[in-house]
């Protein structure tokens, strides 16, 4: 097996946007290390699947170690795994808090910390965020999403500056509502109303935004909104 020129690590990779990202990076010629809680094996020799709950201590490091062992390097990390629970603030439970912060924040922290130790000039980190950080909505109460994904937005800018001198870029994609298996089709019409364009986003549109950032060598510290105008207002 020939050694690929570049290697991308993608979390939440078993379905939806994550699975689309795996396909997208393979089209670019990247080898991919794909993680989710229960991801299965693949016949593609340039896709390594690593099952594990990204919120658990040590899993982030294990994913990076597996990438290095199999492919010898890591060039890109896409922190795609995320949990979204919309509830009135006082209805959130301690279990909700632990689940959301575990995946959205600890997972990001441990995987990205491990990756930053081995990324070289030209490396790239992309964090998947939400436009609800910028444009809150009383019909979608989601303070814990704002807490965690807002933190990712801030960390994106902080890391972009901290690592600019090493030639490593850090960006985020703030999504609106994307048509994925997590949304019941009966809710699609109401969810589309959150976007001024009046429709849901498609998985390929989210993937295209990440791949744009991957190839945009002068872009770092950017929060790219892919949300049908949601962040601009109503």
From TrEMBL:
The entry's keywords: Oxidoreductase
SUPFAM superfamilies reported for this sequence: NAD(P)-binding Rossmann-fold domains (SSF51735)
Source domain of life: Bacteria
InterPro entries cross-referenced by the UniProt entry: NAD(P)-bd_dom_sf, SDR_fam
Keyword Oxidoreductase: yes
Classification via CDD domains: SDR_c
Entry's family note: Belongs to the short-chain dehydrogenases/reductases (SDR) family.
Protein name: SDR family oxidoreductase
Organism: Mycolicibacterium pallens
């Amino acid at each position: 097996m020939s050694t690929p020129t570049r290697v991308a690590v993608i979390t939440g990779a078993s379905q939806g946007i994550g699975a689309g990202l795996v396909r997208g990076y393979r089209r670019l010629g990247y080898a991919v290390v794909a993680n989710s809680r229960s991801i299965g094996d693949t016949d593609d020799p340039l896709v390594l699947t690593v099952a594990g709950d990204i919120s658990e201590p040590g899993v982030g490091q294990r994913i990076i170690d597996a990438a290095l062992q199999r492919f010898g390097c890591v060039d890109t990390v896409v922190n795609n795994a995320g949990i979204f629970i919309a509830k009135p603030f006082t209805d959130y439970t301690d279990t909700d808090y632990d689940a959301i912060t575990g995946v959205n924040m600890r997972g990001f922290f441990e995987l990205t910390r491990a990756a930053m130790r081995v990324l070289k000039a030209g490396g790239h980190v992309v964090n998947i965020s939400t436009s609800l950080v910028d444009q809150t909505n009383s019909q979608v109460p989601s303070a814990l999403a704002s807490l965690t994904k807002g933190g990712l937005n801030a960390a994106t800018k902080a890391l972009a500056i901290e690592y600019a001198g090493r030639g490593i870029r850090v960006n985020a994609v703030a999504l609106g509502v994307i048509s994925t298996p997590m949304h019941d089709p009966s809710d699609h019409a109401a969810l589309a109303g959150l976007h001024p364009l009046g429709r849901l986003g498609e998985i390929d549109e989210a993937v295209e935004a990440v791949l744009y950032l991957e190839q945009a060598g002068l872009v770092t510290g950017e929060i790219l909104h892919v949300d049908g105008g949601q962040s601009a207002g109503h």
